[in-house]
Amino acid sequence: MKLNIAKKIDENIVSVDITVAELGTTDTDESTERELLHDFVRTVEYSKIQFKANMKEDANGDPIVTDSELAENTVVSVELKDLINKSHVIDEDLHITFSVDVTKLPDAEAVKPFDTVEKLGKAKAVLFATKIQEEIGKKLSEIRALNTKFEGDTEVVL
After folding, report:
1. Nearest CA to 122 among 82, 78, 85, 88?
2. Whether the Cβ atoms of residue 47 and residue 85 lie closer than 8 Å to each other
3. Residue 156 pLDDT > 90, yes or no?
4. For the chain, what is the radius of gyration of the CA atoms?
5. Over 90: is that where the pLDDT of 158 sits?
């Protein structure tokens, strides 16, 4: 599965739109993956995802999730709180959106390197997209592990 992740900023609203660009992998064609997704239905449920991670700015000043330890002014912990629980079925019609109005973010949450609400809004959007991608990846691994030669007809001569 290939995802399309569109990030946008419009009138102080930072948003992320995640959709399926195409199905298939290097080992599985589109129709086989579609069948797997329909045979072994999995969902992405927000309440089962921990939307918290250490983040920093990349060379361009854009936020990225990092495995680095917290470091004053360079790596901070960012968390999405009070996210309304939603559940999305993973299939060819997957469409997940997230948006944050930066004018409603408290100034107290804005700390270096995300020291403005605009930078913090971008960080929250990137955090959401990253965590959703990771969860979809886990669910796809589960589904692919269930793909066996079980289905089909077998002739038995007695």
Report:
1. 78
2. yes
3. no
4. 19
5. no
